[in-house]
Amino acid sequence: MAKYFDVHPDNPQPRTIGSVADSIRNGALVAYPTDSCYALGSRLGSRDGISRIRTIRDLDDRHHFTLMCENFAQLGQLVQIDNDVFRAIKAATPGPYTFILPATREVPRQLQHPKKKTVGVRIPDHVVTLALLAELGEPLLSSTLLLPDEAEPLTQGWEIKERLDHQVDVVVDSGDCGTEPTTVVDFSSGEPEIVRRGAGDTTRFE
Asked: Which superfamily, per CATH, for 3-196?
């Protein structure tokens, strides 16, 4: 059964956030809120985490995983980014955007797109997510909590606990965070290509 943590959306309890971070360090797969919708997360180098996310979401190897970052210092270690792209991304973050960029050697090969060698990165605008990332001290491997054959992601922590009780290890509940996933912008060619229109405004990339 999954551990269930009720976290205050504006003032997350440090002890609770610490417990969740410890669980992730020990290999846990967590369901947690973001500024777009709930996500599944595990430690960056966890093969088990990657496998379990693929199983829950029924993903193939062409899926772009997202590396959730606390700040640009972390993001810059994971992807190759030139000055023009940096300025464009900087202007849109933190926020509900995922950016696809060429991965650096810091990113495990199994997280990269098999042909393009790219990966998704983002800096969220959510108090609980940022508190967890700060406590963890490293990026969090993530994927939208959208189950196979369902049109919208799960939005309630209690429902996630109920439905995925034996598939995840931890559920972090800080209230409803919406159903729209991030807007995904592919910058791997140097020019923005909108791959998915979601919670973020796309006009700046058009």
From this structure: DHBP synthase (3.90.870.10)
